[in-house]
Amino acid sequence: MTTINAMPIDDDSLTWGVPSRRVGAFIADSLLIMLLTLSLSVSFAVIHVMSLGLLHGPAHLVLIVGLIYEACFMASPAMATPGQMLAGLQTRRADDLGRPTLLQGIAFTVLLYLTLLAGVIWLGIAFFTHRRRTIHDMISGLVVVRAGAVAPRRW
Fold first, then answer.
1. How many Å is the maximal CA-CA distance in the chain?
2. How buried is residue 148: exposed, middle or buried, by Cβ count under 10 Å (0-12/13-18/19+)?
């Protein structure tokens, strides 16, 4: 069994209280994504009007703001979005608790949005699975853990 800081990786203490914290983190991240999308939309609207419609093409990039936001923050050294940082969470690889790759972050985000489209009830699976993982966690190979549980212990 692999350990991190003398704690087994399969230890459930890494994920105690994670589902409720994830809800708060999701709300905070949603608000930040809405603010980013709104500011980009206004910027693109001004550019659209000033160019008499000639520079309308880049305005469609607003549709992927959430994907870029989530995936890039998960693949960053912080391993968490700003909402997850506020909630004390980190997203890590399920096999060795290492840093997620950008591809895993993209898969996680796309699958999250597909899960939300299919119905929020599917997120309730986290209450019945090992390590409190949702479907998009399992498929992307990630796990959301409490940041304090895996932080290096300093004397």
1. 63
2. exposed
146 forms bridges with which residues in the sheet? 89
pTM, two decimals, is: 0.81
SS3 41: helix
Q: What is the average pLDDT value for the chain, to the nearest integer?
A: 85
116: left (phi over 0), alpha (psi -120 to 50) or beta: alpha
What local confidence, expressed as pLDDT, does residue 9 receive? 52
Instruction: Look at residue 62 in the predicted model and tell me its pLDDT.
Output: 84
- Integer Cα distance of 33 and 128 in angstroms: 29
Are the CB atoms for 136 and 105 separated by under 8 Å? no
**Rounded CA separation 118/85 (Å):** 27
Give domain limits for the chain: 16-148
**Cα 125 to Cα 8: distance, rounded to the nearest angstrom:** 23
Question: Partners of 134 in the beta sheet?
Answer: none
pLDDT band per the 50, 70, 90 thresholds, residue 108: very high
Query: Which pLDDT band holds residue 69 (cuts at 50, 70, 90)?
Result: very high
Cα–Cα distance for residue pair 109/30, rounded to 1 Å = 13
- How much is the CA Rg of the chain, to the nearest whole Å? 18
